[in-house]
Amino acid sequence: MIIVMKPNAGKKEIDNIVDKLHKAGLEAHLSTGKELTIIGVIGDKRLVADANLELMPGVDRLVPITESYKLVNRKFNVKETVVKVGDVEIGGDRFVLIAGPCAVESEEQIFQTAEKLSKAGVKILRGGAFKPRTSPYSFQGLGVEGLKYLRAAADTYGMLVISEVTGIPALQDAEPYVDIIQIGARNMQNFDLLKEVGRTQKPIFLKRGMSATIDEWLNAAEYIIREHNNQVILCERGIRTFETATRNTLDISAIPVLRAKTHLPVFIDPSHACGVKDYVIPLARAAAAVDCDGLTVEVHPNPDRALSDGAQSLTPEDFVELVRQIKPILDVMGRKL
Ligand code: PEP
Ligand code: MN
After folding, report:
1. Which residues of the chain have pLDDT under 70?
2. Is there a contact between 99 and 122 (Cβ–Cβ < 8 Å)?
3. Residues in contact with ligand 1 (CB, 6 Å cut-off)
4. What superfamily in CATH does domain 2-63 come from?
5. For a FRET experiment, which of 69, 82, 99, 240 has its CA 20 to 30 Å from that of 306?
C-alpha cells in the first residue's frame, strides 16, 4: 500500500504516520518529492486494516498495490487447487459436468433425471432443496425431503450430490446428504454462512454474486479458506448489466482474469447466465473454449412443467447434444471429459 500525503503535509504529520506504521510492525519507505511525499508501506497491510490511516492529518489517500486476499491468491500459492470429491477431480485434467434440475420437485422427477444424466456421463447431480426465490409465493423447494430424494437418486446411479444452502440452519440440514455444498449468488457475501461452510470438511461451490466484482468474489472465497477449508470451486453464473435480452450477462472474461489471480478451479453456469434454453448450448461451447474446469447446467425431464427455471432448463436429450457439441472443443483445449 502507498500513502499519498497532501502537498502541504509537514514533517510532524509524516512522522506521525511513520510512527504508527512502526508500532503496527510495518516499515515505511519515504519518497519525498518537490510537491508531495509518498510513503510506501512495507509488510502485511492487514496489520493496519482498521487503523483509519486515511483520516490522519496530512493524508490525501491510500493506494492499495496488493490484493487483500492472500490464501486464494496465485501470488502466494502457485500450485493449482484440485478438489477431490469421490472419484472426481475438479480442477485437474478433466472437464467436469454437473447437471440436474433447478429444484428437486418429486422423487420421480429426480430419479428420471439422474438416470438419463448418468447415462450422458454426468458424475455430479444437482438439485435445489432450499430455493432462494425472488418471490415468496414461488416454490421454495422441498427442504430435507428433497435432499433425501436427491441423495437416493444419486446413490442409485453412482453419482455425487451438490445442493445449495441458503443459511446456517439449511447447512446443518443439508450436510449429511450432500458431497458438495453450493453457496448461491444471493449469499456470496453472507459472511457468517461463508465462515460456517469454511468449518465443514466438504468442498464449497461458490457462485458469483450477481453484482459482485471479481475481487469481492475472491474475498468471499478467502473467508471460507481462512476457516481452513481450502476446497473451494468458483462458479461464474452471469452478472447484472444493462442488457435485458438475457437474464444476466455471462462474464466470460472473468475466467482468464481468475486464472491470473487465483489457483482455485473455475466453473461456468450457462443456464442462469442467460435464462433462455436456446442460448445455453452456445454459452457452453464458449465455456469449453475459454478453458474453465467444468459446467453446471439445469436439466429437467419436462421443462414446460418445471416449478422453477423451466425457461432455461434443457431436456436430458438437449443435454446429450450439449455434450456432443463441446467435445471437439475440449479436444482442441486438451481436456478430457
Ligand atoms: C442455482 O444454481 O440453483 C441458483 C439459484 O443459481 P444462482 O445462485 O447462481 O442464482
Ligand atoms: Mn435455477
Report:
1. none
2. yes
3. 102, 128, 132, 164, 184-186, 207, 237, 269, 272
4. Phospho-2-dehydro-3-deoxyheptonate aldolase; domain 1 (3.30.70.1140)
5. 240
Q: Which atom of ligand 1 is nearest to the CA of 128?
A: 3
- Helix 191-198 vs helix 214-226: crossing angle, to nearest 10: 40
Ligand nearest to the CA of 295: 1
How many angstroms is it from 98 CA to the middle of ligand 1? 13
Q: What is the pLDDT of residues 235-257, one digit of tens each?
A: 999 999 999 999 999 999 999 99
CB atoms within 10 A of CB 104: 28
Mention every residue, 6+ apart, whose C-beta is less than 8 A from residue 178.
Answer: 147, 151, 161, 162, 163, 202
- pTM given for the model: 0.91
Give the domain ranges of the chain.
2-63, 83-333
